[in-house]
Design a protein that fits this description.
The two termini are 28 Å apart. This protein is mainly alpha-helical. Helix 3 runs antiparallel to helix 4 and helix 4 packs parallel to helix 6. The chain has six helices and no strands. It is elongated and about 70 Å long.
């Protein structure tokens, strides 16, 4: 299991304070509390993934500057396209709908749907981690065209997974 995923899920569920313990004695409170924790966990993970995508975008910008400084401006268009795609992914992650539903929410979904969303989130974590690893190698790699194409493919897959996630949430 990915360490990032584990860190977020553990940190959210360990924070039981005295009010949580008292609340657990009230019928129905546990379900409310669990939904609240799931929502907080979802937001923390998406924010972290958005930061990672933005860092990838910044690394691509550095690699583009290196290309321009060396006089190799022919590749800058493909780099810029991938950089913009990484920024778009970051924005979609940061502002995505939550992977939980409140009692009065218009769209309600069951635990199996939430599990599917979490499975997608785990897959997104892996994809974004892989993309960041690829992009970090760009400034030092001689075969940068293959790396930028691989990063572009990963980002396209991430966008499709975000579409699937949104479809699950919207019903």
């Amino acid at each position: 299991m990915n360490i990032l995923w584990t860190r977020f899920s553990v940190s959210i569920y360990q924070g039981n304070n005295v009010f949580e313990r008292i609340g657990s004695m009230i019928p129905g409170y546990q379900g409310y509390s669990d939904r609240k924790k799931r929502k907080a966990s979802d937001k923390l993970l998406r924010d972290q993934l958005a930061r990672m995508s933005r860092r990838a975008s910044g690394n691509i910008s550095v690699a583009m500057r290196n290309l321009v400084d060396s006089g190799d401006i022919g590749k800058s268009a493909s780099y810029e396209m991938v950089r913009k795609r990484a920024e778009l992914v970051a924005n979609r992650l940061q502002y995505a709908n939550y992977g939980s539903s409140g009692f009065f929410d218009v769209v309600q979904f069951d635990i199996s749907t939430i599990d599917k969303i979490y499975s997608l989130d785990f897959h997104l974590t892996e994809l974004i981690t892989d993309t960041c690893t690829l992009v970090e190698r760009l400034p030092n790699e001689h075969n940068d065209e293959a790396l930028i194409n691989a990063a572009n493919s990963k980002l396209e897959l991430i966008a499709k997974e975000l579409d699937r996630r949104n479809d699950l949430i919207m019903g």
